[in-house]
Amino acid sequence: MKILLVSDGPFHTTGYGTQIDVLSRKMAADGHKVFVYAPGAFHFAETSWADGITVLGGWGGDRWGNEGLINYLLWLTPDVVITWLDCQGLTAYGWTPVPTIMWAPIDTTPIPMGEVGILNRAAHLLSPSRWGQEVLASQGLESTYVPCGLDTDLFDIDDEARKRWRAAQTPPIAESTFLVGMVGLNSGSPDRKGYGYALDIMRRFMDAYPDEDIQFYLHTNAEGDQGAINLLELRTTLGLGGVMHFPPPRLPFGAAAGYMRDMYNGFDVFLHTSLTEGFGLPVIEAQSCGTPAVVNAATSISELVMNGGKAKPLTDMWVNTTTKIFVPDVSAMLKKLEKEYRRWKEDAPEKRLRRRKAIRATTLRFNWDDVYERYWRPVLADIPAPVTWDDGPRKLMLGAGGSAKQDKEQGFVTHDLDKFSPDIDVAHDLTIFPWPWDDDSFDYVQMVDVIEHLRPHLVQTVDELWRITAPDGYVAIHTCEAGSWQLMTDPTHVRGFTLDSFDYFDPDTDWGRTYTYSTRQWKLCMKTVDSSGLLFVLQPRKEKKEDARSETIRETATAIS
User: pLDDT tens across 405-421, in order?
Assistant: First the structure.
């Protein structure tokens, strides 16, 4: 099978890159031909990464590779596209017949409607957390649980690594120092990783133990980017200059996995105050090295940590993406941290080691071999078939307008209210029923920016679409979103729609199970958004009608047998 993976390059030290490196190698080892499309890697180039793996550069566009995607689809003709990036930017994905499997690291609730529209274009969704699965399901999206993988051979308890890393710091960190560590990108506003809360916890921690040998190490970009909090200034404001340290200038973005393993071993506790997390790879990496974690137990993180280190969020907070993130409880996390400190001081070395091994054992379920065998192989064995909505021989364009000539060239029967050009085949007012076509006349009906103009009861219009569409056919409806400028600008528009409006006609949806407005039911194949409105693709739920000739052939064959 030919697979197009879209993520960071496998040579990148990001969590995306390290996951793609292992995943692509395992896919190639199974005999698949793997292409890694890494928009942020380089431009207009390709390179061989390993046997069966080719890394493709971007086209000078955004992080998601929207500009170059169609070129690679035409050139490579992959059997499947698998994305491994946050979904909100995948605006060009899922529009073509090639099935797209989207990684959906849900980290807030509810999922913003723009993201729901994008996720609805996926042939299959992969959720790295059970929490994310529940949020997806609550908004009508089915997904398969596929957690991130972990190299448990590399991320392991290693006292020599601990000594090596501590000795390499400036100044060196003594074995008698209790070291609190954090890992994560400092980016955006609000402070997604919760560094402000973390420094508040550390200030209170230092106030509680003023004469103790305690240090704080943040593996992050201290000055931040995209409006993030400046941690150098906050360190000064809170008086943490003597105890709070950052990585050298070449880090954190250039840190190799071996360095990270040494660092996790160097920590005595791992602090994670993130307000929102799709998975939380550093949390399981640290614990795989035996380091206890104290976390804000929100979103996926609550699934990754032993109960003793989990502090429930104080509250949630609505943000500008119309979704909620989860505010850490500083007092509760401080208590958890103090408990870890007392245990560290009181436990003998042998007891510490036993506990570290017990912590590591909780992460072994994320071992890469197990994750690939249990989760990835079943996904790859069940790739959805390509689906083309408009490939039937009998096609109807409702409201063709000025595009009638081009529509006729593409094989459509063209319609509009008036026959204002010779390219309009049928002139008819769609508010008058029945429409001038026989039952089951078309394999594909397209209705672009028409339905919002029609005054009759919507159910009448949808029932008539059901009548003229063949059992295996499709109807594509593009229309205005309720409240949008598209809806409000045109004075002839009479109704707007939401992403869930056509759920009422599909008995497999929550709305369709609750309300029944017609016996003419549909299967809702797609509902999504684009830059100018909403798109719905529906298929009528009805049986094929065999003609008399087919019946005669069947009766003759039965008689002969």
Answer: 999 999 999 999 999 99
CA–CA separation, 127 vs 146, rounded Å?
6
Q: How many helices (H) and strands (E) does the chain have?
A: 18, 23
Give exposure, 440-459, as e/b (b: 16+ Cβ within 10 Å). bbbbbbbbbbbbbbbeeebe
> Does one domain contain both 359 and 431?
no
- pLDDT higher than 90, residue 548: no
Same domain for 196 and 323, yes or no, is yes
In the predicted model, what is the mean pLDDT of the chain? Answer: 93
Question: How many Cβ atoms are within 10 Å of 318's Cβ, its own excluded?
Answer: 10
The pair of structure tokens assigned to 7 is 């993520």
Could you report the per-residue pLDDT of 505-538, keeping only the tens digit for each? Answer: 999 999 999 998 999 999 999 999 988 899 999 9
What is the full DSSP assignment across 536-548? EEEEE--PPPPPH
CA distance 449 to 451: 6
| Burial profile 416-433: b = 16 or more Cβ within 10 angstroms, e = fewer | beeeeeebbbeeeebeee
pLDDT at 280 over 90: yes
Q: Give CA–CA dist 391/472, Å, rounded.
A: 11
**CATH code of the domain containing 208:** 3.40.50.2000
Residues 541 and 552: their CA atoms lie apart, in Å, by 26
Q: Residues 388-401: pLDDT tens digits?
A: 888 889 999 999 99
* pTM for this predicted structure: 0.90
Confidence band (pLDDT; 50, 70, 90) for 444? Answer: very high
CA distance 488 to 496: 9
Tens of pLDDT along 35-59? 999 997 777 688 999 999 999 998 8
Long-range contact pairs involving 518-525 (C-beta distance under 8 Å, separation at least 24): 518/459, 518/462, 518/463, 518/466, 520/462, 520/463, 520/466, 520/467, 522/462, 522/466, 525/387, 525/389, 525/474
Does one domain contain both 6 and 49?
yes
Kindly give the residue spans of alpha helices, DSSP state H, lying in 120-250: 130-138, 159-168, 195-208, 231-237
Mark whether 244 and 284 lie in a shared domain: yes
| Cα separation, 487 vs 469, whole angstroms | 27
- E-assigned strands of 38-99? 46-50, 53-56, 80-83
Domain coverage including residue 490: 395-540
Reading the block at residue 50, the tokens are 């390993």
Could you give the CA distance from residue 61 to residue 468 in angstroms, rounded to a whole number? 43
